[in-house]
Amino acid sequence: MTSLLIVHIDQIATPTGKSQRHGVEMNEISLVQDGAIYVVDDLIISVGKTSEILADLRKKNITAFDEVIDATGQAVVPGFVDSHTHFLFAGYRVEEFYERVSGSSYMEIMENGGGIQATVEATREAGFEELKKLGWRRLNEMIIQGVTTVEGKSGYGLDKETEIRQLRVLQELAVSQPVDLAITYLGAHAVPLEFKNDSEGYLNYMIDEILPQIKAEKLAEFVDVFCDEGVFDYQQSQKLLEAAKELGFKVKMHADEIANLNGAELAASIEATSADHLINISSEEIKKLSEKQKTVATLLPCTAFCLQENFAPARELIDNNCAVALASDYNPGSSFTCSIPLIIALASFKMKMTMGEVLTGLTLNGAAALDIADKKGSIEVGKVADLVFLKYPDYRYLMYNTGSNVVNRVIKSGKVVFENLG
């Protein structure tokens, strides 16, 4: 048993609760001045004002600690949860990026042999150890920005061998480095060349051949589908996700990104854990998400920014009592970034979210989008001690110090995993 005591935190800032926060709840941030957090092993045992926590510990005759941190001058927030990424891939698409900056559309690039297919070719050629090395490097990029939990998808193999290899690498990374991983099978990321003009055949291949093996080997928790123009339509997406649910998987969706195929409505109707992107979500679908209350709307502002598209309607979603999460969509094509400061800036300035809503979207609602809000996403008794220390005394500096990484220490499961105190 190990113990950690953090004292004299200028400000503890956290959403509260064990499930997603909806609407106005997203802006309700608990603030404690001159705070303290007592941690045993990986769990938070007590949170409150320093004087009160110290008095309570003395009353219990707890006076020795394995580590004590004085956080004077610093704010502490929950570890960030990046609930939508494609970080495990080989190959880069820099030329494609500059084509898009020059005016080519995402779909035009795909039709000309670029897009996902370009990454598929490189990832199929990459071995296990190469993918693991690349994944480790990218997770290190995330943790120094305060990310303590990440969702990682397959989807750059589109064949059984490579998809399984991606998932096995993700499983290895989950136990070999400090960031927690939620693992998603996204074979339905695109239709591979082997099934050109036969998306239904590929759909059946995934359902009959790949999903049962993934389930038998316990390689993934979630199944995702790209429900959009030129990929998988409403009925195909429904067929795949219903088959996944029958096998015991939780489901997520890429929905309403490029065109509106009523993907968000499908996500709500089948109670997907999250519906992601939502650039082109309709007002009717927003009402469906609000009525269901179970599906988190995960918005990916870096993708809209890099694609030079409109941003998802965060304000309309929140004002209609939906639960909104924020994530990076880290991938080699449409969002080659895992920048938490960029997410915050775009959500604040372009999507008109308050700093409280942004913090909730990156923590508790991000955890809810991975069905772990009962364990993570807030600084509360009984939750995992995933903590981010800022070099400023107020959490609002996350927005105010625009575009800068203001993280100077990260604690994951009660242990310091990153420090930059210079």
TrEMBL record:
4-imidazolone-5-propanoate binds at residues 93, 156, 189, 257, 334. It comes from the Bacteria. GO terms for molecular function: imidazolonepropionase activity; iron ion binding; zinc ion binding. Signal peptide: none annotated. Binds 1 zinc or iron ion per subunit. Its cofactor is Zn(2+); Fe(3+). Fe(3+) binds at residues 84, 86, 254, 329. N-formimidoyl-L-glutamate binds at residues 156, 331, 333. Its main location: cytoplasm. It is an enzyme of class 3 (hydrolase). GO terms for biological process: L-histidine catabolic process to glutamate and formamide; L-histidine catabolic process to glutamate and formate. Pathway: Amino-acid degradation; L-histidine degradation into L-glutamate; N-formimidoyl-L-glutamate from L-histidine: step 3/3. Its EC number is 3.5.2.7. Zn(2+) binds at residues 84, 86, 254, 329. Gene3D superfamilies: Metal-dependent hydrolases, Urease, subunit C, domain 1. GO terms for cellular component: cytoplasm. Keywords: Cytoplasm, Histidine metabolism, Hydrolase, Iron, Metal-binding, Zinc. NCBIfam families: hutI (TIGR01224). Catalyzes the hydrolytic cleavage of the carbon-nitrogen bond in imidazolone-5-propanoate to yield N-formimidoyl-L-glutamate. It is the third step in the universal histidine degradation pathway. Belongs to the metallo-dependent hydrolases superfamily. HutI family. This is Imidazolonepropionase. It comes from Liquorilactobacillus mali KCTC 3596 = DSM 20444.
